[in-house]
């Protein structure tokens, strides 16, 4: 076994696929390939996976990811058709229009997840700026970047989790979580910068994050109501949904939660106006224009 190998844990029945991040003589530090999970395990408890797509865990996740992608693309197609129909009704003719989706700032505590997230933003044509930064540095970075980039949506995510052997009665304590306090601090700074929850949409949290604390700090959407593992792309899906929901409408809560891979135990939130705008007429290539001045 070596650093970079794909492995599963025997004691957990191979439920999650990991990549070995750090390896010493007896213990391995693991990063989930699909879920925002950072874990450690005895090397003797690990099995190297040669064909990850053949594992039950990977197959199940892939089905959910494909369904989520299908739903996103379907919603985009419906939006295009709806816009064309509305403009045709208003102008009595077919007019080419242009789209202004909400701009996203994405801060991620995991470099690999950030790359996957940026690929999805690009695929869905969402203007996004992504940075890989340690969770502890996020509050400072939020304070510096918001005035510079002026995003419509900010995603604050990375790694989190409930500490081992935390008793049930301590689950509401922020000190029982690996990075929830860092996320909450970043959310508070973002909300101080823009107090209106419709002015700046905040999507925050990772696996097992303190959902209630994140909402109380000012997030619009957060993980994880059921303290479950969330998929790496769930925060991205929520951000894309907000980016492509009209400023005249609220983001459909049931729709966005159902569309995530983790579902209602993984992500929740509050009613929030979208950030998508339509413009008319579409800018033209100005050729053959004669100056008059």
UniProtKB/TrEMBL annotation:
Top-rank taxon, per record: Bacteria
Name of the molecule in the record: Sporulation peptidase YabG
Originating organism: Paenibacillus sepulcri
Name of the coding gene: yabG
């Amino acid at each position: 076994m070596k650093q970079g190998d794909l492995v599963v844990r025997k004691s957990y029945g191979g439920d999650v696929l990991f990549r070995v991040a750090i390896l010493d003589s007896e213990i391995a530090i693991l990063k989930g390939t699909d879920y925002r999970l950072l874990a450690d395990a005895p090397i003797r408890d690990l099995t190297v996976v040669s064909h990850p797509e053949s594992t039950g865990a990977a197959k199940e996740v892939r089905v959910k990811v494909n369904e989520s992608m299908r739903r996103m693309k379907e919603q985009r197609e419906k939006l295009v058709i709806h816009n064309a129909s509305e403009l045709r009704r208003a102008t009595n003719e077919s007019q080419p229009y242009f789209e202004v989706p909400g701009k996203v700032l994405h801060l991620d505590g995991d470099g690999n997840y950030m790359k996957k997230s940026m690929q999805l933003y690009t695929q869905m044509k969402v203007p996004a700026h992504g940075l890989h930064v340690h969770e502890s540095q996020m509050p400072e970075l939020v304070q510096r970047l918001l005035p510079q980039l002026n995003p419509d949506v900010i995603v604050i995510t990375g790694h989190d989790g409930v500490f081992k052997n935390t008793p049930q009665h301590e689950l509401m304590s922020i000190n029982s979580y690996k990075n929830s306090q860092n996320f909450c601090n970043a959310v508070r700074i973002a909300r101080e910068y823009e107090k209106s929850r419709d002015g700046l949409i905040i999507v925050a949290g990772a696996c097992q994050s303190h959902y209630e604390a994140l909402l109380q700090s000012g997030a619009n959407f957060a993980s994880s109501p059921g303290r479950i593992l969330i998929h790496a792309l769930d925060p991205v899906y929520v951000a894309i949904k907000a980016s492509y929901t009209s400023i005249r409408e609220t983001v459909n809560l049931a729709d966005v939660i159902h569309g995530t891979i983790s579902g209602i135990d993984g992500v929740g939130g509050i009613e929030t106006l979208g950030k998508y705008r339509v413009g008319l007429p579409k800018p033209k290539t100005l050729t053959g224009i004669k100056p008059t001045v």
